[in-house]
Write a structure and sequence with these properties.
131 residues, five-stranded mixed beta sheet, single chain, 5 strands, alpha/beta, Transcription Regulator spoIIAA
């Protein structure tokens, strides 16, 4: 799987990492898996790390399906703050499209090129070297 995550309970933080090539169906599966995780206690903060992605294969239809799935699960993810670390142009652009598609569903999402800016926006203290 190109997306893995861990919940850091004492930080009320989800750390999700994209690896290699990320596909639309993998993002959908990740959302369903996270929503079903009994350790997810809303509201949480989520740091999505796209620094190690080689490629993103998400069609326009899949991007819309991902946004719809997030809207369907919005009661589970209510008041979540999600920061994407997307330093490359491809990941940055894709993350911004996602941000626009989910606008207005009580999920505060921002996209950053810099790790420290994302962490600062989330207002969490975490060792950047361990990310």
């Amino acid at each position: 799987m190109a997306i893995e995550y861990k919940i850091i309970a004492d930080k009320n933080l989800i750390l999700a990492k994209g690896l290699g090539t990320v596909k639309g169906n993998e993002v959908l599966n990740h959302l369903v898996e996270l929503a079903a995780d009994e350790n997810y206690i809303s509201p949480m903060k989520k740091l999505v790390d796209y620094r190690n992605i080689d490629n993103i294969m998400i069609s326009s239809e899949q991007a819309i399906a991902i946004a719809k799935k997030k809207k369907e699960l919005s009661s589970r993810f209510k008041n979540e703050r999600c920061a994407f670390i997307s330093p490359g142009d491809l990941t940055y652009g894709t993350s911004r499209v996602h941000q626009a598609l989910i606008q207005g569903i009580d999920l505060n999402t921002e996209v950053f090129r810099n790790v420290q800016e994302a962490i600062d926006w989330l207002e969490v203290e975490i060792d950047i070297d361990k990310i």
